[in-house]
Design a protein that fits this description.
about 180 residues, 8 helices, about 60% helix, globular
């Protein structure tokens, strides 16, 4: 997801991210029951990993910044599951330069609502949690501290150029996650 809107994207990372998202979207929900779906999911994982880290540059971004700061005590994958739709919404509200790439990879209309809905649907199909209040995670009273840490996480800089949230805006995103 992040590779589709990072400031460090290239035509090659766009292509592998789009193809990888397509495989993940169609493979992950049924991967434990269908060998062909498992093959698509594995291919998707390999494709989306391509280009994440290149010499001197990476395509990790805001979802990882939130995941890093929410992961104690949450497992980072759970943090990403809760955070992804909200963070993508915030990113696209600030800078929609990756919207077409995300929409193509998720096979949805090129609008933010469709992209975010697709991310939520996949998360829900996988049975992953959708709210911070439903997991053994941080209390709301910790949001100020978490927002400050998220703002200072180096992967936040991997977002698109127009996404430069303040601590207050990060807290608003955390509130939506609650």
């Amino acid at each position: 997801i992040e590779t589709c809107y990072t400031r460090n994207r290239t035509p090659i990372t766009d292509a592998t991210a789009i193809r990888g998202l397509r495989h993940l979207r169609t493979g992950m929900p049924e991967m434990f029951d269908d060998p062909a779906a498992m093959e698509r999911a594995v291919a998707g994982i390999v494709l989306v990993q391509y280009g994440i880290k290149r010499p001197g540059v990476q395509t990790l971004g805001p979802i990882h910044a939130f995941g890093h700061t929410l992961r104690n005590p949450l497992q980072q994958g759970i943090a990403h599951a809760v955070a992804a739709p909200h963070v993508v919404r915030a990113v696209l509200e600030a800078d929609d330069s990756g919207l077409d790439t995300l929409a193509e990879g998720l096979d949805v209309a090129p609008d933010a609502a469709s992209v975010v809905a697709s991310i939520r649907t996949l998360r829900d199909e996988l049975g992953l949690p959708s709210r911070l209040r439903d997991v053994d995670g941080p209390d709301r009273e910790e949001f100020g501290e978490i927002a400050e840490a998220t703002r200072n996480d180096s992967t936040l800089e991997g977002g698109p150029v127009g996404y430069d949230p303040t601590v207050e805006e990060i807290e608003e995103t955390l509130e939506r996650m609650w």
